[in-house]
Design a protein that fits this description.
GO terms for molecular function: DNA binding; DNA-binding transcription factor activity; monoatomic cation transmembrane transporter activity. 54% of the residues lie in helices and 16% in strands. It is built from seven helices and nine strands, in the order αβααββαββααββββα.
Length: 205
């Protein structure tokens, strides 16, 4: 993210203020030429003039016509530096927050893409393995227990094809329509996702 660039003259104003705070320029002292300031800080005379204007507006210095620039206040120079620091800290925090928001958006986008990939892979697995069995254990208090597969019309009501019933330690493969479903049994069947929901609803009646 591009950063806001501080005007050069504002930075020079801060440098002059630091000289005042550090007593390199003393209150009451006169700086006799803007060209001297320009040479001291390595900038153009116009940049030095703008920097002096900033400080003059804050009553830190006072341009004296034909006599240079007079230093007025070290305390106001310190306040100016503190305010400039607060502004930089605020800008830094704002920039960090924007960077975090940008990263969060990228992370959410990556998560969305990963989730879409997972759904796609899951769908392909189901298409390639349509006969992968589901398993279901009816609640012990289901009113549909102790009845046969045929009497429950499981295929007609749910679309499920029961391929095995686990009763205790006995696994009954390809149970016929006369096999009963008892409490504690595990039912293995094939079908679609909707079939799973239909089986659950049937035994919940």
């Amino acid at each position: 993210m591009p950063k806001v660039k501080e005007p050069r003259y504002h930075k020079i104003a801060q440098d002059i203020a630091e000289h005042i705070v550090n007593k390199q320029f003393l209150v009451g002292e006169k700086l006799h030429a803007r060209s001297t300031l320009a040479a001291t800080f390595g900038v153009s005379a116009e940049t030095a003039r703008k920097a002096i204007s900033v400080l003059a507006d804050l009553d830190i210095v006072k341009p004296v016509h034909g006599s240079g620039v007079e230093i007025l206040s070290r305390e106001k120079a310190r306040e100016f530096l503190n305010q400039a620091k607060d502004n930089r800290d605020l800008q830094t925090t704002h920039s960090e927050i924007k960077d975090l928001i940008t990263k969060q958006k990228e992370d959410l986008q990556n998560l969305d893409e990963a989730f879409s990939l997972l759904l796609d892979q899951t769908q392909r697995v189901k298409q390639n393995s349509p006969m992968s069995p589901f398993e279901f254990v009816p609640d012990d208090d289901s009113p549909m227990l102790n009845q046969s597969i045929g009497s429950l019309n499981i295929w007609q009501n749910t679309g499920a094809t029961i391929i095995a019933i686990l009763h205790g330690d006995d696994l009954i493969l390809s149970p016929g329509p006369y096999a009963n479903i008892l409490a504690g049994d595990t039912i293995y069947f094939v079908g679609s996702d909707k079939t799973v929901e239909a089986i659950q609803q049937l035994f919940a009646k």
